[in-house]
Amino acid sequence: MNQLPENIKTVYFLGIGGIGMSALARYFKEKKCMVSGYDKTPSPITDKLLTEEIDVHFEDNPDFIPDEADLVIFTTAIPTSNKEMQYVKEKQFPLMKRSEVLGCISKDKYTIAIAGSHGKTSITSMASLLFWEQKRLLSFIGGIALNFKSNFLYEADADCLIVEADEYDRSFLHLHPDTALISSMDADHLDIYETGQSMVDAFNRFANNIKSGGCLILKSDLLPRMHFAGKIYTYNLNNPANDFYASDIVIKEERYQFNIHTPTGIIENISFQTGGLHNVENAVAATALAWVQQLPFEWIKHKLSEYKGVKRRFEYIICRDDLIYIDDYAHHPNELKAAIQSAKLLHPTRKICGIFQPHLYTRTRDFADDFARSLDLLDEIILLEIYPAREEPIEGVDAQMLLNKIKNPAKGILDKNELIPYLKSIHPNLIISFGAGDIDRLVEKIKTAFSL
Predict the structure, then answer these.
(1) Helix pair angle (98-106, 19-30), 10° resolution
(2) 233 and 134 in one domain?
(3) How many CA atoms, within 13 angstroms, populate the side-chain half-sphere of residue 301?
(4) d(CA 127, CA 376)
């Protein structure tokens, strides 16, 4: 199905608690549809949907599916053994993937699609902040943007769409953007792609989906691997050989200050409160998107100074003289490395106790050596057991396997119920939790345990 059914009034979601699925649920709610759905377990996202009068249940039971559903939207995280999925297929309900629906929504709008194995959520949230109030905007963000406390922005008459383009399962190939941005093409999702080159090939296909007359904004070190005949603008943290880059980057009172260079001028003395040089580079990328749409320099400067970040992206949970606690979604070796190096740069006198929950058996297996090298940058490493998500266990792949590869002797594996007592016993002054699994459910518990 490559177009939405006509006159949609009732929409049902399989996996409604996912970050991308919940944004689509909100979209159809704004369209005055009856919206409901299933998810495996309650979460802060499903709690919020319930407060928005979107019905959510947690029992795999086809009786909950409305007989009059005009469209069922599913995420690939739903297994084929799911009873509701089997019922939907048996009864031949109109069934679409989340990515297919996004592709349909984008067809009649100027579309800005932001892709990359890392950085895409932060760039999407920054771009959404820059464009909000300047354009009639619809935005789907792959995380909770702290400025909006939401993953979804909506204006009824929107003619501009900003969408995070997810490479998992080649989902982003359903999009045909006017402007696209690619921040990184590091190998990941090898359960889908099998090889890093296959993933690069998919990013090239995504770029070549750009509409005629559109443009690609590309991190400069990706240029040798990109085969795109249209207009390309490059960006980089601080390399002046690019169309967009930052200069005079300094830290003053725990905020970054810098200039951003564009093809038509310099935005000077930007004050930026979000941690990490990778986020300064993300700000350069978001500025490139704004420049293409001719947003005023003063507006860009003002909004970047207000940018608060994304929930679970280098998010400060506690910030006191005696303790800093940062929570981060990092689940790839390069993301871990960037976050740890940023913390060291911002807090050079503190010792970092890092808690990492590996995500997926396949990813842990495929990148075990790289994970170990990144985790060795920490002063102390605590591993939780692997979060399986959609996967079955793989023999020999577990937290102990990863621990054995870490050279730093200050390391160990803990159960979740052992974590807080252990942290209290060592009196840390900088804690960082990492992972894309259910480690986020420990954040409030750690915060409470260390509250004064």
Answers:
(1) 50
(2) yes
(3) 16
(4) 34
Mean of pLDDT values over 429-449: 94
Distance between CA atoms of 27 and 21, rounded to whole angstroms?
A: 10
Please provide residue 33's backbone torsions phi and psi, each rounded to the nearest 5 degrees: -85, 155
Confidence grade of residue 323 (pLDDT, cut at 50, 70, 90): very high
**Contacts for 90 with CB less than 8 Å, ≥ 6 apart:** none
Q: Which residues pair with 95 in a beta bridge?
A: 72
Task: Write out the residue range of the structural domain in which residue 145 sits.
Answer: 108-306
* 300 and 319, same domain (yes or no): no
**pLDDT value, residue 289:** 98
Q: Which residues pair with 139 in a beta bridge?
A: 153, 162
Residue 103: inside a domain: no
Can you name the residues that pair with 35 across neighbouring β-strands? 11
> Is there a single domain that holds both residue 112 and residue 196?
yes
Where helices occur in 220-332 by DSSP H, the ranges are 277-292, 297-306
Reduce the DSSP state of residue 162 to 3 states and report it.
strand
- In this structure, the chain runs to a length of 452
Quick: pLDDT tens for 214-224. Answer: 999 999 999 99
How many Cβ atoms from other residues are within 10 Å of residue 301's Cβ?
A: 18
pLDDT at position 188 over 80? no
The predicted pLDDT at position 1 comes to: 52
- What pLDDT digit, counting tens, does each position of 334-386 carry? 889 989 998 998 899 999 999 999 999 999 999 999 999 999 999 999 999 99
Residues paired with 279 in a beta bridge: none
Backbone angles phi, psi at 384, to 5 degrees: -100, 165
The strand pairing partners of 247, in sequence order, are 259
- Cβ atoms of 106 and 163 closer than 8 Å: yes
Q: What pLDDT digit, counting tens, does each position of 136-187 carry?
A: 999 999 999 999 999 999 998 899 999 999 887 778 898 999 999 999 987 6
CATH number at residue 183: 3.40.1190.10
Calpha distance 419→112 (Å, rounded): 42
DSSP states of 359-402 as a string? B-HHHHHHTHHHHHHHHTTSSEEEEPPPB-TT----TT-SHHHH
